[in-house]
Amino acid sequence: MNRERFSVVKIVSIVGLILLMLWTAFPLYWVFNMSIQTPLDVISYPPKFVFDATLENYSVVLLGKAWLGKYETVQTDFPRYFLNSLIVCFGAVALSMLVGVPAAYSLARYRFRGKENFAFTLLSFRFAPGLIVILPLFVIFRRLGIYGTYHGMVLAYQLITLPFSVWLMRGFFEDIPMELEHAARIDGYSWWGIFRKVDLPLVAPGIAATAILSFIFAWNEFLFGYILSSDVTRPVTPSLMGFISYEQVLWGQMAAAAIITLLPSLILAIFIQRYLVRGLTFGAVKG
Amino acid sequence: MVELELRNVTKKYGNLVAVKDLSFKTKKGELIVLLGPPGAGKSSTLKMVAGIEDVTSGSILMDGQVVNHFDPAERDVAMAFETYALYPHLSVFENIAFPLRSPKRAHAFSEELVRKKVLEVAQFLEIDMLLERKPKELSGGQRQRVSLARCLIREPKVFLLDEPIAHLDAKLRHRLRRELKKWQEERGTTTLYTTTDYLEAFSVGDRIVVLNRGILEQMGTWEEIYSHPASHFVGMIVSDPPMNYLDARIVAKDTEIVLDVKGSLFKLPANVQAKIRAMNLQEVIMGIFPSKIVPFAAETLPSSGTVIDGVVKFVELRGSRKIAFVSTDRNFTFTIQLSGEESVRAGDRMRYFFGEEAIQVFDRQSQRNVIYLG
C-alpha cells in the first residue's frame, strides 16, 4: 500500500520534472536547431524537425567564410564582440572582487556607523531597473570621456556585479566563527596574517562561486552594453541585434551566435555547482 | 614566569554585567582555577586577559605593567578555547603548529623543530595518530585535545585554559588533570584555568577563585575554602552533595552565644562567637559539609561537638561513596557522606557526630560567612 503510493508519487514527480525540463530546454533546442539550418529551412512552415544539418552559420559567424559554390570571405565582427565581452566581464568581476571582498569582510566583521544603511543602499542598486540610471549614466560618461571605453563599461557593470558580490561574500565571512580569528590573534598573527591564513582559505570556494555568478550576470547584461559601448567595444549580447538587417533577419547566423554566446555561461554554471557546497566551516567549533 | 593581576575588572555586554569589579593577583608560576557555574564570567575573564575582549573598566597587569591596550600577540598568552576554535582547513598537525609559524615566531622554529614539538605535545595528549586528519574528522574529545595541544606547544607568559578537559572521557580526564598540572609546573608558566567541577579545581589549582555571576566569592587554597567557605554559594559549589543548610537564630546561653535550630542548640567556636557578637547578628544560616558529619559508635559522649540520632530515609551509592539522607529526631534533615563500605540502608537508625569547628555560620542577609565579616 505504502510502497504503491510511494511509487505513484515518484512517477508523477518524474513526469512533472520531465515536463518542466522540456519547457525550459525546448527554446534552447529550437535555437540550436535554427543554428544548423539553412535560411530556407529556418523560415519553412510547418517548422522542420528533420533536415540536412549545416555548419555554415557557424563558419560565417566565427570565421567570416561563406560557401557560395566556393568559400568566400564575408565580414564578421562576432569574434571581436566576443572578445569585448570577455574583457569587460573579466574586468568587471576582477574589480568587484578587489573592492567587494574587503567590503564584505568589513560588513561582516566590524561595527561602524550607518553600516546597515550602507549595505542596503548597495543592495538597492539591484532593485532599480537599469533603465532608470542609464540616461544619467550616458550623460555622465560622455562628459567624463569614458563613453565607449572598456574601463567605462567595467565601471558601469559594477552596478550589476558589486552589490551581488558584497552581499554574497558577506554571508561567507559571517559563517566563519569569530573564535577562529580570536585564536589566530592569540597565536600571534596580525590582521593581515589572519585574513590571508584563515579567512581567505575558508572563503576561497565562496569567492570562486561569487566570481562565477557575477561573471554570468555580467555576461548576460544587455542594456549597459547596448547604450554605453561604441562599435569597437560592443559586447556580444547587443551585437546579436546586428543580425537584423534592412533586407532580412539572418536567423540562422543569429542562432549560431546565440549558441556560442551561451557557452561560457553554460560551462561556468556546470563548474559552480561544485563550489557552491557550503558547510566549509563545519568542525571549527564544537556542536 | 609572570605575576598576573586583575584590578577592579568589569565587563559589560550591553546591559548584561558578565564580570563585576573583579580583583585578584597570582604569584609567579601559579595555577589559578576559576571555579563557577556556567555564566559566572569565567570565559569572559580569560578573554579579557587574552586581549580578545576589551575590559569595560579596570586594568589587567602583567608583572606590574598595565597591558589593557596590548594586542593579544603582544601579551604573549596562549589560550585553549572552550569551543576549540580549530582551523577547519588545516590538518591537526598544521593546527597545532600554527602558533609556531606565526610571523613573530617562525624564524625561531625550523621545520624540524616544529615537527619535533608537535609530536611531543601530540603524544602527551594521545593524538599523535590523528595528525594528518582534518578537524571535522575528529570526535569532540579529540578536537578538544587538538585545541589544548595548540595552546601547550607554546611557551607563553600565561596559559589560559578554558575548560580544557571538560569534554574528554572520564579516564583521560583524570589522567590529564595530574599531567597538565605537572606540565605546567615543569615550565613554571602562570596559568588561569576554568572549570565547573570543584574536584577538578581542587586537584589542579594552587589556589581557587570562586566566581558567581561575575563576582568573586572567595579566593584561596583548597584547605582555606573547604575549612571556611566564604559564602552560602561557595558552600554549595565546592561540595557534592552540597553543604547542609539550616535556618538558625542566635541565642545567649549563660555567657556564651549558641545557635538555635528549631529548639536544638549548637555550640560555636570562640572566634565565631566573637564575630557574631561584634556584628550583633540575629538571623543566620548554619552550614555543615556532608563529609564532616561522621557515624558515631562509641559509648561515652565526647566533651564537645554534637551527637544526633536519626533515621536514614534514603541511600545513594556514588562511586566509592555513599550519600545518606537522614531525618533526625530533632525535626530537621541532613545529608551525610559515608564511605562505600559502610552498610547503611533506608530505615536504619543511626547516631552521628560533628565537631564545633565543622559548623559554618552565614549571615542570612548577606549570605557571607560570619568569620569574614567586619
Please give a structural write-up:
The complex is a heterodimer of chains A (287) and B (374). Chain A is an all-alpha fold. Helices cover 72% and strands 2% of the residues of chain A. Chain A has a two-stranded antiparallel sheet. With 374 residues, chain B is an alpha+beta fold. Chain B has two domains: 4-237, P-loop containing nucleotide triphosphate hydrolases (Rossmann fold, 3-Layer(aba) Sandwich), CATH 3.40.50.300; 244-372, OB fold (Dihydrolipoamide Acetyltransferase, E2P) (Beta Barrel). Chain B is 25% helix and 33% strand. Chain B has ten helices and 20 strands. Chain B has helices at residues 42-50, 72-75, 92-97, 111-124, 140-152, 170-187, 198-204, 222-227, 232-237, 270-279, and strands at residues 4-13, 16-25, 31-35, 57-62, 65-66, 77-80, 158-162, 190-195, 207-212, 215-220, 244-253, 256-261, 264-266, 283-288, 294-295, 306-318, 321-328, 333-339, 349-354, 360-363. In chain B, the strands form four sheets. A six-stranded mixed β-sheet of chain B has the order 6-7-8-3-9-10, sandwiched between helices. A five-stranded antiparallel β-sheet of chain B has the order 13-12-11-14-20. In chain B, strands 15-19-16-17-18 form a five-stranded antiparallel β-sheet, with no helix packed on it. The longest helix of chain B has 18 residues, at 170-187. The two termini of chain B are 36 Å apart. Chains A and B meet through helix 8 and helix 9 of A and strand 6 and helix 5 of B.
Q: β content of chain B, as a range?
A: 25-35%
Order of helices and strands of chain A: HHHEEHHHHHHHHH
Query: Mean pLDDT across all residues of chain B, rounded?
Result: 91
Annotation, overall tally of beta strands of chain A:
2
What proportion of the residues of chain A form beta strands (DSSP E)? under 5%
Largest sheet, strands/sense/barrel of chain A: 2 strands, antiparallel
Report the mean per-residue pLDDT of chain A as an integer.
86
Look up the CATH topology of the largest domain in chain A: MetI-like fold
> What's the arrangement of strands in the largest beta sheet of chain A?
1-2
